[in-house]
Amino acid sequence: MDSRTPESVAVNGRTYRLPRQPTVAICLDGSDPEYTEVAIAAGEMPFLATLRKRGTVRIADCVIPSFTNPNNLSIVTGAPPSVHGISGNYFFDRASQSEVMMNDPQWLRTDSILAAMSRAGVAVAVVTAKDKLRRLLGHGWSGICFSAERAAESSEAETGFRDVRAAVGMAQPSVYSAELSEFVLRAGVRLVAERRATLLYLSTTDYVQHKHAPGSAEANAFYAMVDRNLGALDALGAIVALTADHGMSAKTDAAGRPQVIYLQDHLDRWYGTGKTRVILPITDPYVVHHGALGSFATLYFERSDTAREAAGRLAELKGMAEIMTREEAARRFELPADRLGDLVAISAKDWTLGTSVERHDLSGLDAPLRSHGGISEQRVPFILNRHTQGLGEKLRNFDLLDAALNHVAS
């Protein structure tokens, strides 16, 4: 390393050593620990099985709400949403009085580890499955940054390859497919093999986990693919660190029917149309596989006394786990209070939260509903292909880069 190059960077109250060998951080979207545990037991993940002896295999907690955007941003900033500002995939902007996607970097409130590393001279690369994360993860630095969703449209400057599809050896995958995640992982392997990046962040999609339970043939086939690519990265000498943005739970009754609390319908019936607003932070452009149904919602009221009364009534609904005020939720889950509603609702493990019946199209569900967002989807894997030392007893998924850069045993 050049003597003028710093040996570490400080980001959001933590110091991170610059990588001295290829380091790959992977967010395996929607990967409840049961998926890998069952796949290992079935013999589908032989490489991952070896890490129980020669690596680090732990369980961590993700950020609540257990959705994609807040957790990916927590992982790359090493901090909770109260610091980086991304409270969900979707929120109500009080300033403009409009509902907006949180895909734009304008909503970010802090720097990322990736940006700091890039400015320190580290070759950084980001590959995401869906394009919704690309701009957030790529904010504040320059380098290889592209999505598998837009691979066919991406330039050589964005991907590092003249034709990234040819380099990866795959056609453009559908956004609703297991192949979208495979494209991300294979791109990561190619980038390491050709020494195009020293610090990589790979983020997949939870299409498989939304549709298939742990141990199913489809899930095991997906995790076998993941295992092959993890093994390939390991064989190239990379430090590989893996976690997830959230887990996944079945959200159905015994007969396989979706269990949904339609919050806006209840509130309209109790207080009148237009008096309240329900925001579902799971909402994004890709709702076919979950119908925009998750287990976390924020609720807005015209009057504070109505909110107090509604809290009691909502708490009594079947399938509701918790109702809390904005202040309680911000404190408990380390969230930005100004980006929450007056109340926060969290459903039970096998229930989801919706707005109104007519606003959710469930016709695209060709398998029993599986989703996330609540406390029941907080447990995630925390895995490295190296022994680590000095990690705390309680881990968060956003400790991943700290573990990979600061705690790998020499």
Features:
Gyrase A, domain 2; 20% strand; 31% helix; 410 residues; Alkaline Phosphatase, subunit A; single chain; 7-stranded mixed sheet; alpha/beta; 4-stranded antiparallel sheet; 2 domains; globular
As for the number of domains, it is 2
What share of the residues lie within helices? 25-40%
Largest sheet, spatial ordering of strands: 4-19-10-3-9-7-8
Which shape, going by the Cα principal axes? Answer: globular
Structural class: alpha/beta
The rounded distance between the terminal residues' Cα atoms is 18 Å
CATH topology of the largest domain: Alkaline Phosphatase, subunit A
What is the residue-averaged pLDDT?
94
CATH superfamily of the largest domain: Alkaline Phosphatase, subunit A
Strand content: 15-25%
CATH architecture of the largest domain: 3-Layer(aba) Sandwich
Task: Specify the number of helices.
Answer: 15
Give a verbal description of the structure:
- This protein is an alpha/beta fold and 410 residues long.
- Helix content is 31%, strand content 20%.
- It has 15 helices and 19 strands.
- It has helices at residues 33-41, 46-54, 68-77, 81-84, 113-119, 134-137, 156-159, 164-168, 179-193, 207-211, 217-235, 263-271, 304-315, 326-333, 400-406; strands at residues 8-11, 14-17, 23-27, 56-61, 90-93, 98-101, 124-128, 144-147, 199-203, 239-243, 249-250, 260-262, 276-279, 296-301, 320-325, 343-347, 352-354, 370-371, 379-384.
- The strands form 6 sheets. The chain has a 7-stranded mixed beta sheet, with helices on both faces.
- Helix 1 (33-41) crosses helix 11 and helix 9 (179-193) runs parallel beside helix 11 (217-235).
- The radius of gyration is 21 Å and the shape is globular.
